[in-house]
Amino acid sequence: MNPSETYVSQSTAGYGIAAVVAIILNTLLTVAKESYPPLLAAMKSLAHHWMVHGVVIVLTFFVLGYILSKQPFARRMNGVTLAWWLTIATVLGGVGLVVFFLTA
């Protein structure tokens, strides 16, 4: 069996892409709230800013995953491609946070 011909289920594809988006959003939201005090203050006014941050990311993951699982592209998502997207997003998100906090 050729790994490039290994397709994942629609749910796996949808929630996998949602995880990629959530990883990148997590990095961007962290940089935004640490760089823009009014955003941090708004988040603190609702609850502890990390709790609000977590809720935003988790909701994004579940809502986007549900929506993307119903899309036609999800029927033909290759498992190797999805793994690469997840790996790239994780590495870029991690490097982005490290660079931001080392330079901030």
Present the secondary structure layout.
Elements: H1 10-35, H2 37-46, H3 49-69, H4 79-103
Explained architecture:
The chain starts with 9 loop residues before the first helix and ends with a helix. The chain has helices at 10-35, 37-46, 49-69, 79-103. The chain has four helices and no strands. The chain has one domain (8-103). The chain has 104 residues and is an all-alpha fold. The mean pLDDT is 94. The longest helix is centred in the N-terminal third of the chain and has 26 residues, at 10-35.
Considering the chains and any ligands shown, give keywords for the structure.
104 residues; mainly alpha; 4 helices
Write a concise synopsis of the structure shown.
By secondary structure, the chain is an all-alpha fold.
